[in-house]
Amino acid sequence: MAASRIVIENCAIATVDANDTEYASGYVVVADNLIESVGAGSAPAGLENVGRRVDGTGHLLTPGLVNTHHHFYQWITRGLATDHNLFNWLVALYPTWARIDESMARAAAQGSLAMMARGGVTTAMDHHYVYPRGSGDLSGAIIGAASETGVRFTLARGSMDRGESDGGLPPDFAVESLDDALAATEATVDRYHDDSFDAMTQIAVAPCSPFSVSTELMRQGAELARRKGVRLHTHGSETVEEEQFCKELFGMGPTDYFESTGWLGSDVWMAHCVHMNDSDIAAFARTGTGVAHCPSSNARLGAGIARVPDMLKAGVPVGLGVDGTASNESGELHTELRNALLVNRLGAHREAALTARQALRLGTHGGAQVLGRAGQIGSIEAGKLADLVLWKLDTLAHSSIADPVVALILGAAAPVTLSLVGGRTVVEDNHLTTVDEDAVARSTRTEARRLARITAAG
Asked: How far apart are CA 79 and CA 458, in angstroms?
């Protein structure tokens, strides 16, 4: 059967390929779920089976945004503990998070995914690590919500086995035993992980953090991931307190501890990595370990400024992350494009820290690298999956900014006229086509109130 085609033309295009190729006015042809061709000027004449033509005048076409770190369940605990650092924030919120159930997890995932997708995210991930006893099938609920929304998705199946009685922060009933965590993680990989080129669902092994899991869970988790051929994810070097914790408990800093447990490598990515010295960065570069940079969350919790320019210079793969919406209430990755540029210019490199195009690369190709999918997504190139976003830049908000990439990154949030995931429409004229946004809003409000009542009742 001949391929069904979509033609998008007359738009500016930022391909984010290896040469940062851009077209002031160009076209992209999508054939079924793949990008067939991209170039300057008009689309080739005589194309067959064109089911749709999109006039992109006044728009910028980019690869879909790729989110590399999130905690979906936090959507129903937004706006709490707003003046806390990380550890105090965790202490304040763990008693609430420990009471989530399957219905809450699904609603929270729907809210998180809807907000990201309508803002240009075509590949999402969720680091879910809270599995209270008797809470139901949380992983299945989250994966189901991603399938309904229509975005590509990586579930980083998290775990914690260090509860309060072992010196950890979460209540004991919200953590798993070592054996249960490993068994549940392996079962999730076996049931859901898809390693095909156009996979919609993938699984990573993701113990929560050095201060909430045992060394044995870290070590055996890495062994499990490599035996199954999936990626590894955790939090790393987020705060000064974490570094002190690692030195007191393990006799070494976070990066050395990660290396000692098998947690550095090209199949690993860490969230945050704020407090990294030159030796840490060199170790990440040497091993190909990736970083999910979450500037808004780091600012919200006062964690600090990650050394992203130094990481990039050293060759560390870096993507962007929303992080949980209890520490980044907007829940949008587009916000991170702007904030990555602005926050890093407050650091040592000042105005030379990042350019607008580097910020776009972090949110697209960089994210694809970090998730191990740079061969399929993250740039607009023939043969790659048709995950594309058409941003409207001809309104008052961007009317006097000549450079479309600068307009997208530094201007107000641009409306999404069209978002495709594998050639399938997910957003049309700034509205989701796959789910009812109003229904999702009602559901998340209901579940947030139910969780608050349950927590108040003790």
From this structure: 20
Residue 143's SS3 state is helix
Q: Find all residues with CB under 8 Å of 69, minimum gap 6, and list them.
A: 125, 127, 233, 271, 272, 292, 294, 321, 322, 323
Closest by alpha carbon to 63, among 331, 371, 391? 391
Distance CA 148, CA 150 (A): 5
Question: What b/e sequence results for 223-249 when a residue is b if at least 16 CB atoms lie within 10 Å of its CB, and e otherwise?
Answer: ebbeebebbbbbbbbbbeebbebbeee
DSSP bridge pairs for 61: 13, 390
Rounded to whole angstroms, how far apart are CA atoms 378 and 349?
Answer: 27
User: How many whole angstroms separate alpha carbon 130 and alpha carbon 142?
Assistant: 12
The pLDDT profile of the chain, 458 residues, written as one tens digit per residue, is 678 999 999 999 999 999 999 999 999 999 999 999 999 999 999 999 999 999 999 999 999 999 999 999 999 999 999 999 988 998 899 899 999 999 999 999 999 999 999 999 999 999 999 999 999 999 999 999 999 999 999 999 999 999 888 887 788 888 999 999 999 999 999 999 999 999 999 999 999 998 899 999 999 999 999 999 999 999 999 988 888 888 988 999 999 999 999 999 999 999 999 999 999 999 999 999 999 999 999 999 999 999 999 999 999 999 999 999 999 999 999 999 999 999 999 999 999 999 999 999 999 999 999 999 999 999 999 999 999 999 999 999 999 999 999 999 999 999 999 999 999 999 999 999 999 999 999 999 999 999 999 999 98
φ/ψ of residue 408, rounded to 5: -65, -45
Q: Are strands 424-428 and 201-207 parallel, antiparallel or unpaired?
A: unpaired
157 DSSP β-pair partners: 128, 205
420 and 388 in contact (C-beta within 8 Å)?
A: yes
Residue reference for tokens 């999130």 = 70
CA-to-CA dists, residue 360 to 61, 209, 339, 374, 451, angstroms: 12, 28, 11, 15, 37
Give the global pTM: 0.97
371 within 8 A of 66, measured Cβ to Cβ = yes
Specify the amino acid at residue 7: V
3-class state of residue 165 by DSSP: helix
**Burial of 134 by CB count in 10 Å (0-12 exposed, 13-18 middle, 19+ buried)?**
exposed
Report the amino acid identity of residue 339: N
Angle at 332 between CA 142 and CA 77, to 5 degrees: 55
CA dihedral 164, 167, 169, 172 (to 10 degrees): -20
Q: Tokens for 248? A: 């007191």
* Angle at the Cα of 87 from the Cα atoms of 285 and 322, rounded to 5 degrees: 55
